[in-house]
Amino acid sequence: MTLIIRNVRPGDIPALIDLAAETFIDSFGNYHTPENCKAFIAQSHNERVYHAAIADPAKLLMVAERHNELLSYLYAKPTTLPVPHPLTNAHELSKIYTHRSAQSQGLGVRLLTEWEDWAESRGITDLVLGVWSENNAAQRFYMRHNYKKISEYQLTVGDVQDTDFIFHKSL
Ligand SMILES: CC(C)(COP(=O)(O)OP(=O)(O)OC[C@H]1O[C@@H](n2cnc3c(N)ncnc32)[C@H](O)[C@@H]1OP(=O)(O)O)[C@@H](O)C(=O)NCCC(=O)NCCS
Asked: Which of its termini does the chain have fewer beta carbons within 10 Å around, N or C?
């Protein structure tokens, strides 16, 4: 079963939106109302966001695909997190999700490594990401790949305020 890691193409966007919605609800649907989930998905995962990401050379939007099925995706961009100085030019892992049927098969680390290599080849020296304070599994995944917590902030999901941790890694 050949796994393909590649950049997202415009024709992938409908399937990517479906994957993003399904994985978000699967991961966080128990913690947020259906209305909050729907609002967050509509705002973060839409044609406009993804077409803009593909067109912007400062952003990276990648998928892991097997048998023509999108199983995992990563979206990274110049950071908009409230990072402490001097990390304001850092690149940010905005989203990484693997479909539940394909987790713990190494897809996440393949995408993470692609992003790190992409960033390093562009002279980026600082990587950051935000992760929900209660998402212990994702925190463990990031710490295993040498990311460390540097601060925290409040994130609004629908009408709920969550605490997110900011993790950092130097390249
Ligand atoms: C976090 C997430 C993206 C990781 O994706 P993944 O594809 O499962 O990642 P990997 O398979 O590379 O690694 C996951 C675990 O599987 C293990 N693993 C990796 N390759 C493996 C393999 N070939 N065989 C068995 N286990 C493997 C790793 O040890 C890793 O353990 P760790 O999480 O304790 O570090 C995924 O779990 C996910 O989508 N979670 C829900 C959404 C989420 O929380 N996203 C992050 C929001 S900040």
From this structure: N
Q: CATH number for the domain including 26?
A: 3.40.630.30
Measured in Å, residue 21 CA sits from the centre of ligand 1 at: 18
Name which residue sits closest to atom 13 of ligand 1, judged by CA: 104
* Residue corresponding to tokens 């399904």: 22
Residues 101, 103, 106: CA angle, nearest 5 degrees: 135
Residue 98 beta carbon below 6 angstroms from any ligand 1 atom: yes
Which atom of ligand 1 is closest in space to residue 142's alpha carbon? 35
Three-state SS at 65: strand
- The answer, as to whether pTM is greater than 0.85, is yes
How many domains would you assign to the chain?
1
**Ligand 1 atom at minimal distance to the Cα of residue 144:** 35
At position 79, the amino acid (one-letter code) is: T
pLDDT in tens, the chain (171 residues): 699 999 999 999 999 999 999 999 999 888 888 888 888 899 889 999 999 999 999 999 999 999 999 999 999 999 999 998 889 889 999 999 999 999 999 999 999 999 999 999 999 999 999 999 999 999 999 999 999 999 999 987 767 788 999 999 999
